[in-house]
Amino acid sequence: MTDVQENLRDWLRDAHAMEEQAITMLSKTADRLENYPELRTKLELHCEQTREQARLIRGCLERLGDDPSSLKDATAKFMATMQAMSGMFVTDEVVKATMAAYTFEHMEIASYRSLIAAAQAAGDMETQRVCEMILPQEEAMANWLAEQLPIVTQQFLARDAAPNTEAKH
Ligand code: MG
Ligand code: FE
Fold it and tell me: Structural domain tally of the chain?
């Protein structure tokens, strides 16, 4: 058996690895976008927000007498690098990247909803407070991406149909 605190710590480590993955994915994707300035700016802003989220989760882990797992973080960063690099091999990179970002935000939303319930069960009010603060940031980003996905898709299609216009990223 595993006690509530131990599960909470483990899931906070997962959340930290997830945010490290997000930082890598957001920064590498933003760096590659040349023709979609609005999307690029938003990804950069959310990347800054994500750095703060990772810092807050580290704070929760430290209070529980734990460090984020360096192994999970390294794996997450590696996966994010591969994900961002896969954009180099597709012609519709910006569309795939926006879809991936949209999917990722929903994974974050699911994680924080679950973490809030776990923190409640563990009686860890500070972790609950932190996760309740992060959740609406992820929801806001998910909503923004939901609105942007059709816009980005149509921008891509228009650029791709035009002569001598780079559409990919
Ligand atoms: Mg996040
Ligand atoms: Fe996020």
Answer: 1
In a domain, 59, yes or no: yes
Ligand 2: centre distance to CA 143 (Å): 11
Task: Output the CA 166–ligand 1 centroid distance in Å.
Answer: 31
43 CA to middle of ligand 2, Å?
10
Could you report the per-residue pLDDT of 48-84, keeping only the tens digit for each? 999 999 999 999 999 999 887 778 999 999 999 998 8
pTM for the full predicted model: 0.95
Judge contact between 46 and 27, C-beta under 8 A: no
In Å, how far are 51, 64, 72, 112, 130 from 133, measured between CA atoms? 14, 19, 24, 10, 5
Per the domain annotation, does 16 fall within a domain?
yes
The answer as to whether 167 is a domain residue is: no
CA of 5 relative to ligand 1 center, distance in Å: 22
What domain range is 69 assigned to? Answer: 4-161
How far apart are the CA of 1 and the centre of ligand 2, in A?
32
Cα 36 to ligand 1 centre (Å): 22
Cβ(41)–Cβ(104) below 8 Å: no
Tell me the CA–centroid distance for residue 36 and ligand 2, in Å.
19
